Amino acid sequence: MVLSDRTIRREIAEGRIVVNPVDPDDIQPASIDLHLDNRFLVFSNSRQPYIDVREPLENLTEPVEIDEATPFMLHPGEFALGSTLEHIELPDDLVARLEGKSSLGRIGLLIHSTAGFVDPGWQGRLTLELSNVARLPIALYQGMKIGQISFLRLSEPAERLYGSPELGSKYQGQSGPTASRFHRDFGS
């Protein structure tokens, strides 16, 4: 069951859902609008000849930071990592879905490739997988509405929350765009 605006407000007031900062005007009928942070990770194709998923990928990207007046330009066919301005926390009986804003999708901006699901127990900012499928560059601004998050109630509370030591959760507590840590799935 998707939570309504009334339930979202109540869950926030009770401290069960954390969205920080949150503007009451950003609460939609069944979601909350999220905003773009000012930090990005841009892929540098000249550093590595290919991506080896068994190897750490921190050197594959370089950080870029923008100010309020300067946009981040996402060029056609380009892929970059961004982050939500908001810190999100979920209780043990809710999951969330991150989706793009339809107005931005209509100009060719995709905000996630596969990372639209947020597990119970999640804490941190959400990394955005930004793709421009249009034929023109898209100017992205710090603080602009970039997506929306909706919440779904589980049939019962989860036994193992995201961030539990036995799960090996790789992104718990992230505070900005975070490069892939898939190599950790191959062990040491």
General description of the model:
By secondary structure, the chain is mainly β. Helix content is 7%, strand content 34%. It contains two helices and twelve strands; from the N terminus they run αβββββββαβββββ. The strands form three sheets. Strands 1, 3, 4, 6, 8 and 10 form a six-stranded antiparallel beta sheet that branches. It has a four-stranded antiparallel beta sheet with strand order 2-12-7-9. The protein has a two-stranded antiparallel ribbon with strand order 5-11.
Round the Cα radius of gyration to an integer and report it. 17 Å
Rounded mean pLDDT is 93
Beta-strand portion reads 25-35%
**What letter string, H or E per element, gives the SSE order?**
HEEEEEEEHEEEEE
Measured distance between first and last alpha carbons: 40 Å
Shape: globular
Largest sheet: 6 strands, antiparallel
Note poorly predicted spans. Answer: none
Helix content: under 10%
Q: What is the count of β-strands?
A: 12
Number of helical regions: 2
Please give a handful of descriptors for the protein shown:
four-stranded antiparallel β-sheet; 7% helix; 188 residues; mainly beta; 2 helices; globular
Quick take:
The protein is mainly beta and 188 residues long. It is 7% helix and 34% strand.
Reconstruct the topology from this structure.
Blueprint: H1 5-13, E1 18-20, E2 32-35, E3 39-43, E4 61-65, E5 72-74, E6 79-89, E7 94-100, H2 102-105, E8 109-110, E9 117-118, E10 123-132, E11 138-140, E12 145-153
Antiparallel strand pairs: 1-6, 2-12, 3-4, 3-6, 5-11, 6-10, 7-9, 7-12, 8-10
